[in-house]
TrEMBL record:
This is ARH40 factor. InterPro entries: Rho_GEF_signaling-related. The gene is Arhgef40.
């Protein structure tokens, strides 16, 4: 998304006031078949892990799947969820639970992984230099886009 300004600058961790990656568990009774949420959990004395939580087959427990760290760069894609669904048995997951202080929102995954942008500047060419995106857009144009 080089050169684009996100409408919700916290994406993908949050979409405006709605939190996408949870820091605490959500009450399992809210989960319906096809629902899931992502949560950061502690892992021994190592870096925290991201887990996917969904309703278990018995519909009375939560299934928890640790997402491999190598997948972190692709989590927020349609392909990731499609691959995840292909590797598990049961109802396909399609709705991600997002939270605010007061509410829980059931949002289709394709809405979560396709962020909105304020504008789409015309960029002729983008390049990666040492993992950082650079663009030929002059700094004065970027400043006016930010305003």
């Amino acid at each position: 998304y080089c050169g684009l300004l996100f409408r919700h600058e916290g994406w993908p961790l949050c979409i405006h006031e709605k939190i996408v990656v949870q820091l605490a568990a959500i009450d399992w009774r809210i989960l319906k078949p096809g629902d899931f949420y992502l949560q950061v959990v502690p892992y021994l004395k190592k870096s925290p892990r991201i887990v996917l939580k969904c309703l278990a087959k018995d519909k009375h427990n939560v299934e928890e799947v640790v997402i491999p760290e190598v997948s972190y760069t692709s989590i927020f894609t349609l392909e990731w969820l499609s691959t995840f669904n292909g590797e598990r048995m049961g109802i396909a997951l399609e709705n991600c639970l997002l939270t605010t202080d007061e509410k829980i929102f059931r949002v289709p995954w394709d809405k979560v992984v396709n962020p909105e942008f304020i504008n789409k500047p015309k960029i002729i060419e983008n390049t990666l230099v040492n993992g950082v995106c650079t663009s030929p857009v002059p700094p004065e144009n970027l400043k006016s886009d930010l305003e």
